[in-house]
Amino acid sequence: MSRARMLNDTLIQHIHSSFAEGSGSGHGHHSVIAGQQPHGEMIDTDTCRAGAVKDYIKMMLEAEQLKFLVFAHHLTMLQACTEAVIEAKAGYIRIDGSVPSSERIQLVHKFQNDPETRVAILSILAAGQ
What are the pLDDT digits (tens) for 105-118? Predict the structure, then answer.
């Protein structure tokens, strides 16, 4: 449990530092360009957040053999989560709006019953159906 807490704290610190580098708005609205680096280049805060989440997923996969769920709303974040799992060479399922309703229950069963399928990447809207 302490390893999971450490990973969670690391994610929070990473996201917090991403906001500190950007505009610091921290509101639920996503802007592509939120701030500037000292040399004038623009910061993409969505990329910073996605990078933090990818790092967190990879740490979770390295930490233990636990299964876990990842919920996201935006397709860019779903894609970043998928990339992280693929890069870590872990088994996963993904349920988003492009997955027909008839296939979703099969994917859920795969996640629940296949020990190699460790991550479920879920769109908040699609998973609620």
Answer: 999 999 999 999 99
12-32 residue pLDDT tens? 565 555 445 444 444 333 323
3-state SS of the chain? Answer: CHHHHHHHHHHHHHHHHHHHHCCCCCCCCCCCCCEECCCCCEECHHHHHHHHHHHHHHHHHHHCCCCEEEEECCHHHHHHHHHHHHHCCCEEEEECCCCCHHHHHHHHHHHHHCCCEEEEEEEHHHHCC
Residues 6+ apart with CB under 8 A from 74: 30, 46
* CB atoms near residue 96 (< 10 Å): 18
51 touches 76 (CB < 8 A) = no
Supply the pTM of this predicted model: 0.66
